[in-house]
């Protein structure tokens, strides 16, 4: 007699698709089988049972470049849970002059109100070898993923420091995460735009051609290759970026690629909207159809690995002249799973299994989460019941973020989570919040144990 | 309380690797979990628990080209079970002038003594469109895999008939299996060899250059492509064959490739052995190191799918002059799983998961076996307990085939099955035969239900 | 003082483009230089001076499959000369039961009235090794190119004979030319079309999918590879064909590809024309835009080598019901050079140099014509003066073939030859025929002397 | 009656190979033909007649990084002429604080003693947009090639300035030449080597892995691509560098690659020689066999374009302790043509035509020399008579550089120039210097006229 049994759902994982009961004992999955008996029963007939979704790229009330995002750990994690997310990984943007450990601890303090489990990437901002030398200790504390920026004042590191940091990451068996943009040339093109009076959102993309993203990614991967570091490229946005990741992978390098939902779904033309366009002045920028095709293609053929949100939205504000505008930042944490189901699976770009893989399973592997992302005895009982038939339209009012608009306002969705279970506890059910903020647990991560699935072959069509 | 619980083994599948109990109820897997309770318990600590191996290419006492193989359904299936095999697929070589149905039924009669479950590929030998038109009925009876020969007198079909048969296969949603060799040119080169007095085993390969295998496979795949048929190439042996399959796959065609153990493990030089060489005069032929590297590489990178044996051995005989020789044919059914573990996994060519995939899981998908090949509730309780530490050397005396030698005589093995469970029944245990010949069941196969795993991504190294 | 000097033209070859005088002494080019002095002077200012064009694929009043083409050696070679062609290569379709030598000699007799120089490909039609064994003698007589058909009743050879013939070609250092189509499957698809009542020109293409051309070409090249024979594929028509030639070339095989003008310029939709469509029921068939793009791309990137015409037109006729129709066959010998200039160079698909290469220089190399195709001292003084500004529209009345229509009726042309010089003799000048039929000379061909240009690099743009 | 006729030589160009007379009138080639008559006759029977070789990368007594090379314009150009070189391109390393024009003029002054014709690349050293803005004027003066360093203190430019300079180059239709190395990471690795006590020549390569050259080249090409500039990568040394150039070229970018003779011929192991190793501490470094194979392969398949020397040798010197050593720098200007003939053509890596192409013709195209590099009427009469049979061994005594050793000491040579003609004047003949220093002329270069050969196809083997 197990504590809880999810009965009769269609269990979908990165590789499987079958009907079974899932039994939970305490916080873990105890069994997957037929006719399992439980003290409590949840009827999942007609629903998909998925591993809890993981969003490996979020910013809960972080400050960055003068922005303070308006979702904090509490509101953001509640929105996440409504969207089927059971784990988020935030970032500690360690201030200059602060040790990585202290910066991490401060950030951990801010994340305590989390409803769901969480991890933290640690961002090396200080361009010094001494600070980089702190990396192994951080990795060994269970924070293996070190974020390195190639762009943004106050964040970008010189290549030599990126390289030295990657060497530290490699020595400690961690993961180098890179925000890859060619800062120097973007700045130069921006300077030229300004000098020529070319200002406004529509010139944003012109200073960030895809060829430069290809350059920055190739450079990051070359450095990681020489350093011997496992490397994840955040928010790949351009066809040239996909090309370089695929090429490095083909040469045998251990490299991963992340796609953010907005790059896969929105076009640069959206910047023209007077009210909403200002929110979409992002780096890397929104691009065109050819690039979006490359991103979906890369996810489908396993050249890219995971879909995240870079969730970090802001409430609308008025500018000096009193005009309402939307500060830069994207929301998405509550709708990602449904968006990728709708525009990935329903649209024929991804298989059902691959959808679960890029949203739920593969992020666990890439981010070193040993007990997440699978529906298998011994794993955390993080589960989502997803109704594939439910149809709705995105609007900020329905969502649970602390913001007054949505990046995906008006997008039609097909399928949505109905219940979210975190370590055996039903925290969201049919639109009702049942879990308590602060119950989320900090996750130790790493690559020392067996976390990786071997690739299976292409499906035999039916 | 389940009927049987395999306790504490290391469950290894094509994608997973974890410690758990596996519970069996009746003939099926009922649950995978922790602390499962069973009437009967098998302690698997320290052992691998694998899905039962599947050998999709065997000949039990079939006549072909004047050969009568010396293992029959009983002896061959017993040898199989000792080697961890729980399903075999034999072939009905339907005689000329006989309907496919009648030929199939005769063959089914001969397979009744099987200890383990079995299926049958149906071989279209008669070069007529009328005979080919019987294919859909056969597919719909649960025999979706139609074998088509491009070589051998009495077996080879003209391309037009192969194409027409593929169209029938496509219409019925079956699988065209092709023995792909360029018969005309092989015959021509053989004729030239004979005319020049170049006879004997060592000239065998010279008449079968790899470029001709590439030709035959490309042709078979082009025909399958135009016909719209799913296609499996049997016993790929040459680098050029791997190249053509990989290229077609990259173009999006649904094509599969099989490797036979002997092509992956033996060199053409073996034909020089006076006593044993005559057994190895095979078509396609044994080749060289470059070809073997291509086969292992193709298995590792998913360009090829499955490893089989083409098991069809013969006892030694004396020729007219009274000299002992070994008639052509390979054994291997009892050692394949261990051979691929030893020379694939231990040698660093395949991962543990991929070993299980090519021997156990992928054959189930490719051959349309819905309830085989996975350790998952609802699937048949076909399980192997494999001791990865056991070391032994192949010799015919230890094996259970009805023959007096072994193709792999003297090969060192690392790891061997200790127990084999077929549909919940322990049929072989620690060297003892417990199951009864004839208990095996004929399997209906097909592609109408969900059988296929979606590919997962490359592993995150530890 | 030279016999003749072409003064001040823009000399364009496969690799050069410069203004110079070209001096002729007797039948040869004596010098290229400045201020050359001649007894006779032709002013070429404003004109291109090209090596005489070569059409390596024509049929002058050949019978084939019940067709008798309506241009004979006299009319066809006159039309050729007006189009800037100074060499043609016809075919000896040696009848069954006749030795290659005798068949060749009969054909040579028929070609005597040629105005320009000519060669002959010898077609092995008889499916016998004995006949194939005559090949080396033919090659050594100066006829190195042996034509082998994979399609057409009475022409197609079994693969074994094609292979044996290629071995003979290889031994004699000749060239195997292949008409590559998969006859068996085309026949099968045609049979199925007929059985289903799908008749008429529009079903012609449906029985000849591009994948089958890819198959036939791959097969031909595999056989040539094993035989060790240099190989030219005639009239490549499908993207799949280009793909296979490019792949073989990349693997280092010595293979060449020919494009016929109609495949590069006409669409399968043209078959719908009631009067003209019947002329275009060709094998290989006219195809679609994707295929034409592949042909032009293959010519541009050197995956394909030469452009020919397969010139073999027929006059209009009346069918049994008295309706006028156009029997199958294409004209083109008089307009090819201008067509490729217009739709290749002017349309931006080929450079000026590459146009000259595929029409004039490369055919000389591929067909073993040692003294043709270059403007260089010692080479035959075969020269065309081409006015790149002249504009005209193709119509049968303006042309010199013995037919009453043109395959390219209504095509706009930009650029046309104004004078044609053959071995130093001005044979066509400003629309006037000056040469005498019968002056053409039979050319000995072969590969024993230095004929090949080494590839130069990509151009440095200006 | 021409001024001079080279009679009966074997004229070899990038695309041709035939016996002819070459007539010279004044400084130009007047005609190529048979039986040309001249006031003066040079008998070239048995010799190759080549276009004068061009060395596009030399340093005659330049200072760079504290080195003063020991060949000056006079001695270096005399050595060049003995080696069949008729044009060199030196570099103006414009000092900081000096306008490009002034720096160029100073350098031109120093080059006046040249025996042969010369050009100058202008090096932008000052990292300022203002200095970069001077580029168009320099290009328009006939100096289209702007050298940009990514490495070396006092030479390396920030990426933004490289990019801005490339934009200026693009606007003026010039050529950006890049010394591509990843300075930051090389410095970091060097720092780490030093910190770990790893000093000496053998650690030189360890700080310059090929992957970093791939990185730097990819970055340079990405910047050139965005800027729209034609780009030449100097001294490609690593397989990864060849790979990136080939990839960019395949994507359609106008990029060229140079190989320096020492990278193609010497191994990193040579640094171990106590006396000579110190001369070979070069950047990019000498590497291994895999890299040399990639360089030869890139030249052969047209992924790389030209072979130069980076000639800039120094006489032996004594260090503080009085020990004789060889300061860094390579000689080679006198032996390049013979070395590439010996180790390229004779060794089977390059065809005869390709040898002439990479040493003589292609440099003219890449560097915008309109009247050099071809044997064609109107071109400068720069010609080399090369004896392919002559055998000798490289030793400094036989050579004409102002140094006391040779980079290729002891190398066997097959073939050597016997006579060198510059603009119609015989300046070196059978080991005797006939021309006068200072007769060389400064060459205006550019891309506005027709300079480019279109690629021809692969040769038809004989």
Please report which band the strand proportion of chain A falls in: under 5%, 5-15%, 15-25%, 25-35%, 35-45% or over 45%. Answer: 15-25%
Mean model confidence by pLDDT of chain A: 94
Task: Tell how many strands the DSSP assignment of chain A holds.
Answer: 21
- What's the N-to-C terminus distance of chain A? 38 Å
Shape of chain A: globular
Biggest pleated-sheet summary of chain A: 9 strands, mixed
Structural class of chain A: alpha/beta
The radius of gyration of chain A is 21 Å
- Any low-confidence stretches of chain A, pLDDT <50, length ≥5? 449-458
**Helix count, DSSP H or I runs of 4 or more residues of chain A:** 12
What multimeric state do the chains show?
A: homotetramer
| Helical content of chain A (DSSP H or I, runs of 4+) | 25-40%
- Give the largest interface: A-B, 56 and 56 residues
Question: How would you describe this structure in keywords?
Answer:
homotetramer; 462 residues; alpha/beta; 9-stranded mixed sheet; 12 helices; 25% strand; globular
Describe the structure.
The structure is a homotetramer of 462-residue chains. Helix content of chain A is 28%, strand content 25%. Chain A has 462 residues and is of the alpha/beta class. Chain A is globular, with a radius of gyration of 21 Å. In chain A, strands 1, 2, 3, 4, 5, 18, 19, 20 and 21 form a nine-stranded mixed β-sheet that branches. In chain A, strands 6-9-10-11-12-13-14-15 form an eight-stranded parallel β-sheet. Chain A has a two-stranded antiparallel sheet with strand order 7-8. The interface between A and B is large, with 56 and 56 residues.
């Amino acid at each position: 007699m197990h504590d809880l049994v999810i009965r009769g759902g269609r269990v979908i994982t990165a590789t499987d698709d079958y009907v079974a009961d899932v039994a939970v004992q305490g916080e873990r999955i105890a069994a997957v089988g037929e006719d399992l008996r439980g003290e409590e029963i949840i009827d999942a007939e007609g629903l998909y049972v998925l591993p809890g979704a993981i969003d490996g790229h979020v910013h809960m009330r972080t400050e960055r470049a003068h922005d303070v995002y308006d979702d904090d750990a509490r509101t953001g994690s509640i929105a996440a849970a409504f969207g089927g997310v059971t784990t988020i990984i935030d970032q500690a943007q360690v201030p200059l002059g602060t040790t990585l450990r202290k910066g991490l601890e401060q950030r951990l303090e801010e994340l305590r109100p989390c409803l769901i489990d969480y991890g933290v990437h640690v961002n090396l901002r200080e361009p010094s070898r001494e600070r980089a030398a702190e990396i192994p200790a951080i990795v060994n504390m269970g924070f293996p993923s070190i974020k390195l920026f190639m762009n943004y004042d106050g964040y970008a590191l010189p290549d030599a420091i990126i390289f030295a940091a990657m060497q530290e990451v490699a020595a400690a068996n961690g993961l180098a995460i890179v925000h890859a943009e060619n800062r120097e040339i973007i700045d130069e093109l921006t300077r030229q735009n300004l000098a020529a009076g070319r200002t406004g959102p529509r010139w944003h993309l012109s200073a960030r051609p895809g060829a430069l993203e290809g350059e920055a990614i190739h450079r990051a991967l070359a450095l990681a290759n020489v350093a011997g570091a496992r490397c994840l490229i955040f928010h790949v946005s351009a066809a040239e970026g996909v090309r370089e990741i695929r090429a490095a992978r083909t040469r045998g390098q251990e490299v991963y690629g992340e796609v953010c939902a907005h790059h896969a779904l929105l076009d640069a033309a959206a910047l023209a909207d007077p009210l909403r366009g200002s929110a979409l002045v992002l780096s890397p920028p929104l691009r065109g159809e050819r690039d979006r095709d490359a991103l979906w293609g890369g996810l489908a053929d396993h050249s890219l690995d995971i879909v995240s949100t870079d969730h970090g939205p802001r409430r609308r504000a008025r500018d000096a002249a009193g005009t309402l505008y939307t500060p830069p930042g994207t929301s998405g944490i509550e709708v990602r799973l449904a968006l990728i189901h709708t525009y990935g699976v329903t649209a024929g770009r991804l298989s059902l299994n691959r959808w679960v893989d890029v949203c739920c399973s593969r992020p666990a592997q890439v981010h070193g989460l040993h007990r997440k992302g699978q529906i298998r005895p011994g794993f955390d009982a993080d589960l989502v019941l997803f109704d594939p038939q439910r149809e709705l339209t995105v609007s900020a009012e329905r969502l649970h973020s602390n913001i007054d608009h949505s990046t995906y306002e008006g997008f039609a969705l097909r399928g949505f989570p109905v219940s979210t279970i975190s370590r055996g506890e039903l925290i969201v059910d049919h639109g009702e919040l049942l879990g308590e903020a602060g119950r989320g647990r900090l996750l130790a991560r790493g690559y020392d144990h067996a976390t990786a699935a071997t690739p299976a072959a292409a499906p035999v069509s039916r």
